[in-house]
């Protein structure tokens, strides 16, 4: 991993820690507003492994309250590992920032189902993975949808399955993009 990318990742982790422990960790009702998690996925002969932080700001917006939607912001650092043997393009690092809207199902039980959708941006360390997948630009867009459950004390734990598509939106050709499916396990910071 290049030194400049390591520095950017370190700054992101420190910033998330400062935000998380700077008074934004819990909402008034005690539910966590910052979740940290691990991500694993697969698509088109590429394995994805990463870490994620989600911030749920609990904004007091009337239109959000009417719809039941909750805003969130996901920051993620992931490694893509290609499955092609002997390739010069075996892996890359993906840093992404994706605003999300969550719709939690109304429930009184200890388990709360939810659905999330979002659009965001990615910055890739390389523009190629495996021998046949060319992404052409380091800057990519991402669309994301997942279905999951929040559970445990104050719904601190979250487990979800997702589909994610990364593409440069035809800024430059070829635009192979990558669609992958995965799971994420998150824990709300105490």
Tell me how many strands there are.
Answer: 10
* Mean pLDDT across all amino acids: 85
Biggest β-sheet: strands ordered side by side in the sheet = 1-2-3-4-5-8-9-10
Shape: elongated
Total number of distinct structural domains: 1
CATH class: Mainly Beta
Task: Based on the model shown, name its key terms.
190 residues; eight-stranded antiparallel barrel; mainly beta; two-stranded antiparallel sheet; Porin; 2 helices
Question: How are the secondary structure elements laid out?
Answer:
Elements: H1 3-21, E1 34-43, E2 46-55, H2 62-67, E3 70-82, E4 91-104, E5 112-124, E6 128-129, E7 133-134, E8 139-151, E9 157-167, E10 178-188
Antiparallel strand pairs: 1-2, 1-10, 2-3, 3-4, 4-5, 5-8, 6-7, 8-9, 9-10
Notes on the structure:
By secondary structure, the chain is mainly beta. The two termini are 32 Å apart. The chain is elongated. The model is unreliable at 18-26 (pLDDT under 50). It has helices at 3-21, 62-67, and strands at residues 34-43, 46-55, 70-82, 91-104, 112-124, 128-129, 133-134, 139-151, 157-167, 178-188. The protein has one domain (3-188): Porin, CATH 2.40.160.
């Amino acid at each position: 991993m290049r030194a400049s990318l390591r520095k950017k990742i370190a700054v992101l982790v420190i910033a998330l820690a400062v935000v998380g422990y700077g008074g934004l960790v819990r909402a008034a009702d005690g539910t966590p507003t910052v979740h940290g998690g691990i991500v694993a996925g697969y698509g088109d002969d590429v394995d994805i492994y990463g870490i994620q932080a989600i911030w749920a700001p609990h904004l007091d917006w009337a239109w959000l309250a009417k719809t039941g939607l909750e805003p969130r912001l996901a920051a993620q650092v992931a490694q893509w590992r290609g499955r092609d043997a002997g390739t010069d393009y075996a892996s890359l690092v993906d840093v992404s920032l994706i605003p999300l809207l969550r719709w939690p199902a109304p429930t009184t039980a200890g388990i709360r189902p939810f659905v999330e959708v979002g659009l965001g941006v990615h910055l890739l360390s390389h523009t190629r993975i495996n021998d046949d997948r060319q992404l052409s630009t380091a800057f990519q867009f991402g669309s994301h949808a997942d279905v999951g459950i929040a559970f445990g004390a104050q719904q601190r734990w979250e487990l979800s399955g997702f589909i994610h598509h990364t593409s440069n939106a035809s800024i430059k050709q070829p635009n192979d993009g990558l669609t992958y499916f995965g799971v994420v396990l998150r824990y709300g910071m105490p």
